[in-house]
Amino acid sequence: MACGHPLYHVRQFHTAGRIRNERPGDNTPTLSRVSSEGGEAVPVHSKQGRKNRKDPVEAFIPAPCPLSPSLDETLQEISLRIGTSSDVIIRRFTNESLSSLALAFIYIDGLVNADTVNQTVIQPLMEHVTLKSDAITADKAYALIKDQMLPIGGVQEGKTVEHMLSLLFEGYTLILFNGLTMALAADTSGYEKRSVNEPTSQGVIRGPKEGFTESLRVGTSMLRRRLKTSDLRIEEYKIGQRTGTGVALVYLQGIASEDVLAEIRRRLNGIITDSILESNYIEEFIQDGGLTPFPTIQNTERPDAVAGGLLEGQVGIIIDGTPFALLAPSTFFNFFQSSEDYYQRYDISSFLRLIRYGAFFVSMMLPALYIAVTTFHQEMLPTTLLISLAAQREGVPLPALAEALLMELTFDVLREAGVRMPRTIGPAISIVGALVLGQAAVSAGLVSAAMVIVVSFTAISNFVIPSLAIANSIRLIRFLLMLIAATLGLFGIMSFLMALLIHLAGLYSFGVPYLSPVAPMIPRYLKDIFIRVPLWNMPMRPKTSMSKETRRQGPDQKPQSIESQKKKAQLTGQQKKPQGEDQA
């Protein structure tokens, strides 16, 4: 069975900017380069190959292979593609009175519900009287099975081997016909899925307790339950030549910006890679910013957080195989907002949000400030505090920088060990290890007690930030700040902070300024940035989302007391009374 391009069955390996091609049955590998315009592979050592040596290498996408009219050839081609895998089940059906009518059922054990396959596909077809008669043809059998005999909602048609194999790997049962170049695929998927549980990384005291799972369809159904509107749109993509990972682009029509949607679609369609195993793969392929430690795309495993983002004009990306969804565009201030901010009173939410911003600066700058002050600017400290610190450091053999680096690295090792160890003993080991090592280090005179306090409070402040992505960014910046503080003191810290602010002001997330609405300053959209005003005082959607429908609630939503309503009614009556007397 000859299929598509002659390089269709070529195995490709990227080697130092080249692709090494191996054809089945050919032991002589050839080095060739795939043109960036999607043409044929060009030998590297040829004149044209040397000319195009600097062109970017892209994965070769072959032409589709049509199904053969011969059932045996189609089965042979499928067997050649998937090999002799033990979980692939092939069941053939032949009409005894009409040898030309032959069917084949193919499914993968473990991806399908065995009862559904047997009761709704194989048994009805093999026991149907019409299919056993000698008057039935392949065309009539195809139409009969498609329109009348499959009591399943999801039935698809296919004409190529690639399309049918992609459905087979999603849990469909293939129905192949002898004498036809078309096939049917019935949705019989029924593989094991993890049940919906509480999110592990973004817990709340008040609010929904369910999080996304690794199933794409479960994730989209959670959003459907929260957003019961016809404006909710879900576009699905298949990304990854080896994994064929399902990716869902979710947005609200009329609220999400069309420019942002077009840009996200362009970047998703431009991804050519072997595998997508987690949402970070997609994030790195489509994010803005280039070489920056700051994330420009949010990730969350909370359906309510994604629903809230969609209502503010953001676009959600759900990836099959991971419970973490993406939200874009995102600004710097989105990473300090928690779902729980909107589930409790605005004054408490504002207080907690200010604590998060304070914890951000403490986590980033406290060790550096301690190093700078104790090394270069002792005159800034009160005399009693300076004498106390000097007494603590009297027997410490290490400078302040080495002392801070030792404690920071030790704490990072303990935190990583607590994550990797079994869940039952991991937290206990990390807590006990921190206490024992800290006390032992102080007793041995390796570090001062003040440094242990500084590093501990820095680590605790880092956990206050609700977004793990930006918390990890602060960990990297902290080490750089400590090195600068040890060499240039407070002058170096201030210079670095100015450069960092300039860097943040130059970042964009799908066309949205990263520091918006602070830079550029838009005062009326600051109601949900540093603090949260009452919900009735936020009638407009955030400007950062570039949404088309900017108003999200009606005017005059502030609740009124009974006394104010009576006074308002009295004033309204007094205004209407003179008009009635004039008419009389």
UniProtKB/TrEMBL annotation:
The chain crosses the membrane at residues 354-376, 426-444, 450-472, 479-501. Residues 546-555 have a biased composition (Basic and acidic residues). Residues 16-55, 542-584 are annotated as: Disordered. The keyword Plastid does not apply. Keywords: Membrane, Transmembrane, Transmembrane helix. PANTHER family: LEUCINE ZIPPER PROTEIN 4, SPORE GERMINATION PROTEIN. Belongs to the GerABKA family. This is Spore germination protein.
